[in-house]
Specification:
single chain; alpha+beta; three-stranded antiparallel β-sheet; two-stranded antiparallel sheet; 3 helices; elongated
Length: 90
């Protein structure tokens, strides 16, 4: 499912226009991104939680040449599925 298909599904399920569903989805995504950018955590009980983790700098290898390269430290987003979502998938 892509973004436009998700907007269509939200609009149909909620009985709202596609424009309203698009605004709601964009608001959700913006708030999740903003919270994670500030280092916060989002938790939706039953669905899952997003958090930011720091990945330390490390050395890696260029697979083509075999040379050692330095990989910079960075922040990564982690998602942990909740029990209900995990149960629905399995």
């Amino acid at each position: 499912m892509n973004k436009s298909e998700l907007i269509d599904a939200i609009a149909a399920d909620a009985g709202i226009t596609k424009a309203a569903a698009k605004l709601a989805l964009e608001s959700f995504l913006g708030n999740v991104s903003g919270t994670l950018k500030k280092g916060g955590r989002i938790s939706l009980v039953g669905f899952g939680s997003w958090s930011v983790s720091k990945r330390a700098a490390r050395e890696g290898r260029n697979p083509q040449t075999g040379k050692t390269i330095k990989i910079a430290a960075k922040n990564v987003v982690k998602f942990k599925a909740g029990a209900e979502l995990d149960g629905a998938v399995n």
